[in-house]
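Predict structure. Chain length: 183.
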Amino acid sequence: MKSESVPLSAATRWLHGIVAVGVISMLAYGFVMEQLEFDGAVLLHISCGLTLLLVIAVRAMRRLQIGWPQANPDHPLAQRRTARAVQWLLLLASLLMPLSGLLMATMSGWGLQWFGVELMAWSPDPANPGEVIPVNALLLEIGHELHEITAFVLIAGIVLHLGGALKHHFVDRDDTLRRIWRG
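Prediction complete.
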């Protein structure tokens, strides 16, 4: 696979920052949202998740097209491989998270809205007013489980990624972290 040359482009740095802030914010909001008993909290989470999915998809396509940032050849091979594995983990998990949420939302029977715009109609249960009929209960459960597991995978990946960046900056004192800020 190709690798992006040094310095990193502005588009790479901006997409990295937007996705990082978006994913971390959505993870935090998702955990808080579980404690709220307000349907609007879920609708906002879904709308923001759909929007973030589009940005993540652009970032993933760009990453596959131009490759990963070049690793410092002075770093040990095991460290470079670990970093690349964590980058792949973050890319795949950041895609799986909103996709599993989308699966969960569309299979729930509650329909799908994006900031109030109906994208998929809801399936009211005629026998129980105010309730819905799930489109597919098995896919709903699969989406829910994937969404939950992926949250913890993302958290682990983010901790590893941040830990590596901080190690490069404060222990190795190299330019790895500065590249993402300044290009």
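Summary: The first helix runs from residue 10 to 33.
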